[in-house]
Design a protein that fits this description.
Elements (H helix, E strand, L loop, with lengths): L7 E2 L7 H6 L18 E6 L11 H7 L10 H4 L5 H4 L9 H12 L8 E6 L3 H4 L11 H6 L3 H8 L9 E3 L2 E8 L8 E5 L5 E5 L4 E4 L5 E3 L6 E6 L1 H9 L5 E4 L16
Antiparallel strand pairs: 1-5, 2-10, 2-11, 3-5, 3-8, 4-5, 6-7, 8-9, 9-10
Length: 265
Amino acid sequence: MSLDGGIVQSERLEAAEWIAERLAPFAACQVGSIVPRGFEAYVRVFHPTGEGEQRRTWRQLADRYGRVMHAHAEFERLVPPDQRPYVGDPPVGFMPPELTATVADLVARHTRAADRCWFCLWDGWGWLQGPPAIAILAGSPEKQRQAPLSETQRRRQSRFRLDAGRVSLPGRDYLLLEGPLASLAHFGYSIEWPDGRRLFDHASPNLWWPDDRAWCVATEIDLDSTYIGGSQALAADLLNDPRVEATPVRAGDARGDTINPPYDH
């Protein structure tokens, strides 16, 4: 079944077997538990908060609140709890669209297979299931009249075959898709309103890699950062691009902030 942007849902689950073979145990809470081990270099990409002029990097927030920014910083230890409603949280489980496009542009330079990539989507996302797994709540009568029709939404989500085979990795199962790297712009879900308007909400894949396995991009569903394994040259591109807030890490690094003390609640 062909989806938007040339994406095809795939049953070739063997294409992802190499990932399971190179992951550290999930309970180890290492970088290598998220992105496969064996690459030359690894980078952590921090998801920014806000948009446009309100966009803030983690380093900016650490400086503002007198915290130490480092490779394994945790957002909840950088921003005081009473300030987080004003700052906003970084996206968890996916990269924002601008960052996804930037990362895609950078990794494309480091593969010969940008026209054939693989994408894993966690099968637990509510937007894959449709109602009643996902619902949009509207408060006023006017907004209620404009709320999406559940049957329409269910039809939009049916483009994914939920009875398809799964890529099984420690703690997570994924739908597998394949297509060109450029198809990343089409990942997400559409909501159709009764008046004909359609809203597209971006959602980056949780794992993506080219057919030559030159790199792998991993966004764990519970994390507000993305980990990328690849060549030293790719790592340098990511670290030197001003559009990306990133830091070098190692596959064996344990995740967790041991420098900034937790805030008192």
